[in-house]
Amino acid sequence: MKKRILYFLVLLVAALTVSSCTEEGTDIESINKQTILVFMPWTGTAYGSQGLYPYFKQNLDSIESAILKARQMDGKVLVFLSSSANKSSLYEITLENNKIQHTPIKEYSGNSYTTADGITQLLNDVKNIANALNYAMVISSHGMGWTFKDDWNNYPYSAKPKPIAHGSCNGIGKFVPYYPTRFYGSVDDISNYGTDIESLETGIRNAGIKMQFILFDDCYMANVETAYQLKDVTNFLIGSTSEVMVQGMPYQTMWAALASPTPTYATITDAFYKFYSNYKPPCGTLSVIDCRQMDRLAELMKLINTKFKFDSNKLDSIQVLDGFSKSIFYDMKDYVDSLCTDKDLLNDFNSALKQATKSTVHTDSIYSALNPVDGGKYIKLKRYSGITISDPSIHNVALKGKEKTTWWKATH
What we know:
By secondary structure, the chain is of the alpha/beta class. It contains 13 helices and 15 strands. The N and C termini lie far apart (77 Å).
């Protein structure tokens, strides 16, 4: 009897083993766990300026160097790169025999990538060629924060330096160093090559994707308005509260942490800090915002706005994180600390803000290229939480646009 039972168990195990190796069986190791789309749209003009294109090429070289150093790829990497105002290509970076290869996927004409429909089409193309359990996106461009492109006149204003300049004259014959940032480039043609955050969110949502993270290699993107707008299409937002120097992210030391199926966010911000604390000028901020915490943050902000009204006389005392003559981006914690006098409510808010800011780093000062005649502007950081808000701003563009944001509607 025991022999019969043993024989039956052997047959059962054999049958299960065979069934697991059939064509219907799934080898979990063969599943692509993550696809990263590096999105580098056109930032210049229709004729003339290349914008950030030369720097994008440097960034891609850094990414590929990091892949070669690692000698492996944890997932797939696709690149959308605009080489001119009307020509873009999608290709895959692969590693074969310890050599980088580019596999062409698709060519695009025009600038539909600035629209929600164009973004959806691109992401559908990505899914078709590199389907994955998780998706992430690196967006390299010129950031204008949450603001709406149609609200700008002479974006950001008529005094614009040449993107590749590294010095200027202050008007009295004295040469002062000037350092370009990623705030310039599409400034010359924002109507044709700018994309509103609402369009980005709609494009991702219509593609049926929720990103693991979106890294903005752009200026002014670590703001609560953008994080709230994107909360349903990404888990994390990685970006700067302020201007990003024209060289962009230090991908050579950051890429391994980004490309992991389980990104190590503190390692990402540490790599940024180590690079820019030794840069000239030593200026920069980077935050990882947990967009899944935005609903709770908005709920508490609405309670505060219901009970308190900001005293505009305090505006000049709030920490600014931009170089505009009338600031748009203010430190969020510093603003709410000045607004709310209910100690318990303020503690609840600050606790929620801390949860929402997963990791953040900053140098002692930030730099803005918005005043090129005087060699740019340095702003000392006395208070810093890693995320900005535009509620108190009296800048014309903020006054035009902030009440249109989903953040404002949820908190007022």
